[in-house]
Write a structure and sequence with these properties.
With 247 residues, this protein is mostly helical. It has a domain of 99 residues: Leucine-rich Repeat Variant, CATH 1.25.10. The longest helix is centred in the middle third of the chain and has 22 residues. The protein is elongated, with a radius of gyration of 21 Å.
């Protein structure tokens, strides 16, 4: 059975109405359960944003955001409505954040946290879609967006590196994790990932990142690669060079 769309899921969360078929599917589909959780979080954050009348120029910006997201995501996109919702919420929160610059610091901090959470929810949801092109786009957005490190975002990226079926997506996830390489947890996870990977492109990308991060704990995993019959000569050469640098 096909996964439940964002539109149907949002309608379900707002009205409580769902077809028997979708209810049965939801009870056993982890992807749709994740989507429900992420949309619940999205709706909660939107509900917590200030409830004053939205100025005309912000409404115009919202209309433009909807048109842009629809154009970018296409009619069949799994992410379309989630991205639209995030764009609207971020615009609204951004407006009230600007308006509150002269207000109390606690309110400003809360609004900033809401923007951060909305970005994370959108990006982590994108990394769970069934389209490799959308997953790559999401990973690239993480790499390009000035977003703070968070356990949720890091966990999702590492999970992508270890389990995504597309080597291109895994490669891009490694590149995105580079901005978080100052985090010891990230480096430890990538050292472990090195022993799980069998794609030369991914192996080399991990080796280079760990060398750039000066992660000496990677040496043992690199030595195992030198002894493995499953590792191609080009990767072994990279591993050997990395060991010399890190020791």
């Amino acid at each position: 059975m096909k996964h439940i769309s964002e539109e149907k899921m949002i309608d379900y969360l707002e009205t409580g109405k769902i077809s028997k078929a979708d209810e049965t599917h939801l009870s056993s589909c982890k992807d749709c359960q994740n989507l429900r959780q992420e949309l619940q979080e999205m709706l909660r954050l939107m509900a917590e944003s200030p409830q004053e009348e939205t100025p005309e120029h912000i409404r115009w910006s919202i209309d433009a955001a909807i048109k842009e997201e629809k154009g970018n995501s296409g009619n069949g996109s799994h992410l379309g409505w989630l991205q639209i919702a995030a764009s609207i919420a971020i615009l609204l929160i951004g407006y009230w954040l600007g308006k509150s610059n002269s207000g109390n610091e606690q309110q400003i901090a809360e609004l900033q946290n809401q923007v951060q959470e909305l970005r994370e929810v959108t990006l982590t949801s994108a990394l769970r879609t069934h389209s490799a092109s959308e997953r790559i786009l999401a990973v690239n957005q993480i790499g390009e967006t000035p977003i703070k490190s968070s356990d949720r975002l890091i966990k999702t990226l590492i999970e992508t590196v270890n389990t995504d079926e597309s080597s291109n997506v895994r490669y891009e996830a490694i590149q995105a994790l580079e901005k978080f390489s100052g985090n010891k947890l990230v480096r430890d996870e990538l050292v472990q990932s090195l022993e799980l990977q069998d794609d030369p492109l991914i192996q080399i990308a991990l080796i280079r990142l760990l060398v750039d991060a000066k992660e000496k704990s990677a040496v043992e995993s690199l030595k195992k690669m030198l002894e493995s019959d499953q590792v191609i000569p080009e990767v072994k050469q990279q591993a050997e060079t990395a060991i010399k640098i890190l020791i």
